[in-house]
Amino acid sequence: MGLLEQIDSGVEFSASELVKLYDYDLLELGEFADQKRRKLHSNKVFFNINRHINPSNICADVCKFCAFSASRKNPNPYEMNLDEILKHTQEAIKNGAKEVHIVSSHSPNYTYEWYFSMFKTLKESFPSLHIKAMTAAEVDYCSRRFGKSYQVVLEDMAKNGVDSMPGGGAEIFDEDIRKKLCHGKVKSHEWLEIHSLWHKMGRYSNATMLFGHIESRLHRIDHILRLKHTQNTSCNGGFNAFIPLLYQTQNNFLKIQQSPSAQEILKTIAIARILLDNIPHIKAYWATLGLNLALVAQEFGADDIDGTIQVESIQSRAGAKSSNGISQEELIYKIKDAGFRAIERDSLYRELNEF
Ligand code: V47
Where is the signal peptide (predicted)? Predict the structure, then answer.
């Protein structure tokens, strides 16, 4: 039996054994991942109508890959006030958004109360809007800065209207690579602990992996296995989606010119689908992959493409062509043109509409 068949029959392998998956021919690997994806989701491609809001770019941390935070590379600090956030949210709802995805820098200027009164006001103003907010890195930052336990921060999030957590801040779990990328930020075991605590509260979240920089294939497999293990021990299977984020090369402190080939990217997505049999969705995030490759990825294990976004600031600052989001019409047209069913979902993957 080959490695793929053994994985399929439940044999467990170490990361250094699983790295051999990359030696498979792309189409063989893709076909295997596609079968798994079709068994779970037939030929549906999920998307949502959402809006990203990044309240501030003033950051106490210096992640080498980041082009978003105000720094020497991006000397334009900003900080939104509550009225601006409310205005953006209102606009977003007018444009059909059912979710706001709120991720901020780690701003030393915001108080603990600021975060939670912002969520509370949003929820009271727009009760049916799903608030996906606070990466585990932000939870960790708030915990350290304001002397609160993770549990207290998470409870305050839930109490004040945060519905689910985004997957940001995971980067790469390997401790040595992480030190080189984002020393001082939430540690790998802390990131996983925060999501586990959130899941214990009956809540859901996503998980990302930033790849295509200084990490190796082995580090990616290790990252995926740590997520798989956490999901196995989660009481509610709390991770909804795994999102491999392709590193964008511009305006940051990592000196990497060469992105991985499309083959390498598709293999990474296929391997994620094959190994993560306990995470239902694999998101090919169009903002980092580009729409065309994100659509191809739907035949290599992915089943989700993210949403309309409306305004995107993190990846676009680093070179992605995503600053204005994408219209719902174009997204649906492209999904259908690629031969898939375009399914609008809510933030927890309940199906809302088929176009
Ligand atoms: O954690 C920063 C990444 C993430 C770069 O949960 C970069 O549905 C590429 O987590 N190139 C934040 N990526 C965004 C995020 C996210 C995005 C979409 C959907 C969801 C979800 C979550 O952005 C950070 C970091 O890994 N990032 N800089 C860069 N140069």
Answer: none
